């Protein structure tokens, strides 16, 4: 399968993901203390994902027609992609119960390891950097949302 067909398939996956994120934003509890509301950012991300995916589909279809290639969509299923999707859905289901901070640290660590080349799995430097990023990024995000935007992310078992 050529790259244009892969782009079309991945864009459709991101459209579905964007729709799910947008639909999931309705379950976020709205308080009067929030200026923009906690639903604003997930909806913004979802709309951007859907918009960019549509642009990607249009661009890829135009390039496919230009090259006049066959239109069959045959692709090999990648285990890491399937695991990433499963982990992402598990994250979405558990974030309210476990809490943003703990679950995001675990999610980022797992996702980084899924994206690493296999020869980096046992490298000590990679483990250290992955651990630091997995802890630092969610902590920075949590306090940025809390302090700068007054948006309270799910505390879960810590709350």
Overall description:
The protein has 159 residues and is an all-alpha fold. The protein has two domains: 1-76; 78-159, no CATH class. 70% of the residues lie in helices and 0% in strands. The chain is built from five helices and no strands. The protein starts with a helix and ends in an 11-residue tail after the last helix. The model has no long low-confidence stretch (mean pLDDT 83).
Secondary-structure topology with pairs:
Elements: H1 3-24, H2 40-67, H3 79-98, H4 100-115, H5 124-148
Helix pairs in contact: 1-2, 3-4, 4-5
Question: What distinguishing features does this structure have?
Answer:
159 residues; mainly alpha; 5 helices; 70% helix
Summarize the model shown:
With 159 residues, the protein is mainly alpha-helical.
The helix fraction, in percent, is: 55-70%
Number of strand elements: 0
Mean pLDDT: 83
N/C terminus separation: 48 Å
Question: Helix and strand succession?
Answer: HHHHH
Q: What form results from the Cα inertia axes?
A: globular
Q: Please describe the biggest sheet, giving its number of strands, its sense, and whether it closes into a barrel.
A: none
- β-strand amount: under 5%
Domains counted in the coordinates: how many?
2
How large is the count of helical segments? 5
By secondary-structure content and strand pairing, the structural class works out as mainly alpha
Sequence stretches where pLDDT stays below 50 over 5 or more residues: none
Radius of gyration: 19 Å
């Amino acid at each position: 399968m050529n790259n244009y067909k892969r782009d079309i398939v991945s864009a459709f996956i991101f459209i579905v993901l964007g729709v799910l994120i947008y639909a999931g934003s309705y379950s976020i509890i709205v308080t009067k203390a929030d200026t923009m509301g906690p639903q604003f950012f997930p909806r913004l991300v979802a709309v951007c994902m859907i918009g960019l995916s549509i642009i990607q589909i249009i661009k890829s279809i135009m390039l496919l027609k230009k090259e006049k290639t066959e239109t069959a969509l045959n692709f090999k299923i990648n285990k890491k992609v399937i695991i990433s999707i499963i982990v992402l859905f598990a994250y979405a289901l558990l974030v309210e119960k476990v809490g943003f901070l703990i679950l995001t640290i675990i999610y980022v660590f797992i996702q980084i390891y899924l994206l690493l080349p296999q020869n980096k799995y046992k490298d000590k430097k990679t483990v250290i950097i992955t651990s630091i990023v997995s802890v630092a990024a969610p902590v920075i995000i949590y306090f940025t949302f809390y302090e700068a935007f007054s948006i309270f992310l799910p505390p879960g078992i810590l709350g």
